[in-house]
Every structure is written in structure tokens, then in C-alpha cells.
Design a protein that fits this description.
two-stranded antiparallel ribbon; 2 domains; mainly alpha
Length: 272
């Protein structure tokens, strides 16, 4: 900013130089024109000049009161913004905890229902066997019909694979984890294989993996043992899927870790 005042407008040369060095603008911090109190009201004295400077050499040229007020205002605005962000994050965390709690409840219900249905199936298996070919393959439709013929009400239920078709899961008697609610089953798609394995247990999971490997080995003899899935309606076999090389123990451990995480989220949500 150029200095527009003349030397004769100040009481002394020192006052004039001070004004020039400190960007004197002839106005106070409120923007009002400063009165001239020196030289019988015709000149500015040093006290007048200090009121109209944006900078002061006093105390190492620290910022004027007006500049400090600006800094304080910016700091308060920043603090207000941080508080709003904190409140937003708290709200999002609360929503996430509620969703986790609801999912945990649904998983607990599904787990209890699955265990109860498994007990019922085991009783029937003592004297009855589902329809299957000599290798143990049977379609979900055949398996569902067999369950209904033996007294199970499967309204709103889907036959549930332990290993999903899209990961090489075979339509085999050893790869069915009985049934689950259709909304739940279709909602999890193929993302909860490990959780299914943790429900099925080690022996059933071992048999399920063996059935998947058998389907791949016999793909020329039993080409429909694995359903076509995914967008391109392609058959995916065990060695091509995401679980290739995994053991039953590894899949079960992964599923149990998921379950522990869900339970931890539920506990945390209940503490809120």
C-alpha cells in the first residue's frame, strides 16, 4: 500500500517516519477517520498515528489489536468446524453401531435356526437319505423337495451351500447346510462361506471341500455338478475359486473371527 500523507501533516519528522514505516492509513480500527490532536488540531501526533497503524514496532512489531481479533475469529471458526465434524462422526458411528447390532441379531437368529434345523435333519438321516447319484450329487431343487416331503415347511427358505457355487461349491449332499431364510441367503451371496463353515463344523466342511474337488475331477462325467453363476454364467471350480488351497480349519477360523468381530461390535454398541 502506497503512503499518501505529507510530512507537514504530522507534529514531528519522527512521527511522520513512524507512520510511514507502520502503514498508517489515517483511520482507526473501526474504519473511522482519525482526528488530529496535535498542533492545535491540525496535525497528527504519535498517539494518533499508533491508532491508525496496521503494524507497530512496539514489542518486536507484533500484530495490532485488529489483526489479533481477526486471528481469534478464524480460530473460533475453525474450532466450530471441528466440533461439527466431531458431531457428524459421532452420528455416523452411532448409525454404524446400530447396523452392526441389527446384523448381529439376525446372525444369531440364523445360527440358532440353522442348528435346530440341523438337529431335525440328523434324526431323519438315520432312516432316510436324500435322492442323489452314485457320487452324491443332487440339485438344490431335488434336495428341497426331499426336505418338504419329510415334513419341513420351507416357505421363505433357500437351500444353502456351505461353499458358494461361484467359488466352486458343488451341488452335492455334503455341500448343503440345509436351509436359511431366502432374504438372508440371497443377501450374503457368496461372501459368507467362512461363516457357513464355522456353523457346519470341521467334519462337514471337510466333506464339503472334498465334494467340490470331486465335482472338478468329474466335470466331464457330471458337468452340472457345479451351477453356472456370476454375470457371465460361468462354472467356477474349486481350484479356480478364492478358497483354492485353503483347509477346513482355515475357513472355520476365518468364520469364527468374523463372528467374534460381530459380537465385539454388539457389545460396544450396547455400551453407548
Amino acid at each position: 500500500m502506497s503512503f499518501k500523507f505529507k510530512e507537514e501533516e504530522f507534529t514531528t519528522i519522527g512521527t511522520f517516519q513512524y507512520a510511514k514505516q507502520n502503514n498508517f492509513n489515517g483511520k482507526d480500527k473501526n474504519g473511522k477517520t482519525l482526528k488530529k490532536n496535535g498542533g492545535k488540531g491540525k496535525k497528527w501526533n504519535k498517539a494518533d498515528v499508533k491508532k491508525g497503524c496496521t503494524r507497530s514496532v512496539v514489542q518486536g512489531k507484533k500484530l495490532s489489536n485488529e489483526t489479533n481479533d481477526d486471528k481469534l475469529e478464524k480460530l473460533m471458526a475453525k474450532l466450530e468446524l471441528e466440533q461439527k465434524e466431531k458431531a457428524k462422526l459421532k452420528s455416523e458411528l452411532s448409525t454404524a453401531n446400530k447396523l452392526a447390532k441389527n446384523l448381529q441379531i439376525e446372525l444369531d437368529i440364523a445360527l440358532r435356526e440353522s442348528r435346530e434345523r440341523q438337529k431335525q435333519i440328523e434324526k431323519y438321516k438315520l432312516t432316510n437319505s436324500p435322492p442323489k447319484d452314485k457320487y452324491g450329487f443332487t440339485t438344490r431343487k431335488q434336495y428341497r423337495k426331499w426336505l418338504m416331503d419329510h415334513g419341513f415347511n420351507l416357505n421363505g427358505q433357500d437351500v444353502n451351500h456351505i461353499i458358494a457355487s461361484q467359488h466352486g461349491g458343488a451341488d452335492h449332499i455334503d455341500n448343503y447346510l440345509y436351509t436359511t431364510g431366502n432374504k438372508y441367503n440371497r443377501g450374503i451371496k457368496g461372501d459368507f462361506d467362512a461363516f457357513n463353515c464355522s456353523q457346519a463344523g470341521k467334519e462337514m466342511t471337510k466333506r464339503a471341500i472334498a465334494a467340490c474337488k470331486l465335482a472338478e475331477k468329474l466335470k466331464d462325467v457330471c458337468p452340472n455338478a457345479v451351477e453356472k453363476r456370476a454375470g457371465n454364467k460361468k462354472r467356477t471350480y474349486w481350484s479356480e475359486g478364492v478358497h483354492a488351497g485353503k483347509t477346513a480349519e482355515e475357513l472355520i477360523e476365518q468364520g469364527q473371527n468374523w463372528f467374534r468381530t460381530f459380537r465385539l461390535n454388539l457389545r460396544n454398541a450396547n455400551k453407548k
